[in-house]
Amino acid sequence: MQKTKNNELPVLAIDIGGTKTAAALISPDNRVTDKAHSPTPVSEGPQPVINRIFSMIDRFLSQGNTGPAQLYGIAIAAAGAIDTDKGLITSSPNLPGWVNIPLRDMARKRYGINTCLLNDANAAALAEHRLGAGRGTNNLIYLTVSTGIGGGIIVNGELYSGASGGAGEIGHMTIDASGPECSCGNRGCLEVLASGKAVAGEAKRRIKEGGRSRLTDIVSGDMESITAEKVALAAGEGDRLAMDVISRAAGYLGVGMVNLANIFNPEMIVVGGGLSKMGELLLAPAREVVKQRAFPLCAGAVRIVAAELGDDSGLLGAAIYARLR
Length: 325
Hints:
Number of strands: 12
Radius of gyration: 20 Å
Strand order of the largest sheet: 3-2-1-4-7
CATH superfamily of the largest domain: ATPase, nucleotide binding domain
CATH topology of the largest domain: Nucleotidyltransferase, domain 5
Number of domains: 2
Oligomer: single chain
Shape: globular
Order of helices and strands: EEEHEEEHEHEEEHHHHHEHHEH
CATH architecture of the largest domain: 2-Layer Sandwich
Helix content: 25-40%
C-alpha cells in the first residue's frame, strides 16, 4: 500500500447514495476538478454496487496521468452506520443487505493506496463547517433531508464520531414511539416522518383518501410518480394539500431540531439534501417549532440555515476527512 502522503496531490472522493453514486477528483484547495455519476443499483445487493464503484475508480485512474501514485488517497462516503476505525459499512437502511461490508480494505487491496471510509452526512458536515454555511462556527449540527435523513455533528471545531464512528444518525432519533415503521426497523423515527420519502408518501395517502390537489394534474394522474420535489412544486403554486404536507414534515423536523438544540446547544443547524431546496417553505415552520419548544437559552443561540455546497458536500467532506487523518 502507498505509504507517503503528498498534500499537493488530489483526493479521489466517492459518495455512495441510495439512488446514485458520485466520484470526483478534489484538488488540495478543495475544488472539484472532475466528476462522474452512476446509478446505485441497491436492489441487486452489495457486490454489483461495489463493482460499479470500482469501475468508476478505474475510469478515473485510466485518464491521463491520474494513477494511484498521483493521488493523495481515496476517500469514500457512504450512507449508513459506518465503523470508521475498522472501515466497515455495518448497516444501512438505504443500502439493503449491506452488513459489515469491509469496503475500505477492499479498495485498499485493489488499488494499493491509502483509503478511508466515513458516513456521507458526516462528510457533508465537515464540508459545510470548513467551506460552506458553517464557516467560522465551532459547534454545528448538519442535517441532510433527502430520500432519508442523516446528520453530522461538529463539536469545538472537530467532527464528533462517537465511540465507534456511529455518531450523527439523527434521522433515527425517535419522534413518535407509536409512529409508522421506519426502514431501520424502529417506529416513529424522524426519517419516516420528515424525509422526502415521507413527504411523497403523505401526499399520496391524502389524495387517495379524497384530497384535492394540483399534484394530480402535475403527475397526470399517476399517483406513484409523486415525489417530494413535485409536492414542493405544487406548494409553490399555492396548493393547500401540498402546503399542509410540507408543513407537517417541517413540524416534525422542528421537533428533531429541538432535541438537537437542547442536547448540543449548537451555534448553527445547517439543513442540506434535496428538501433543503424548498427553502423557507421548510425552514420557517421548523424554526418556529424550535422557538416555541426548545429551552430559551438554546433556542436563542442557534441559527437554522440552508446548506451552501449542494450535491458536492459529501465529496468535498470526504476529501477533507482524508487529509485530516
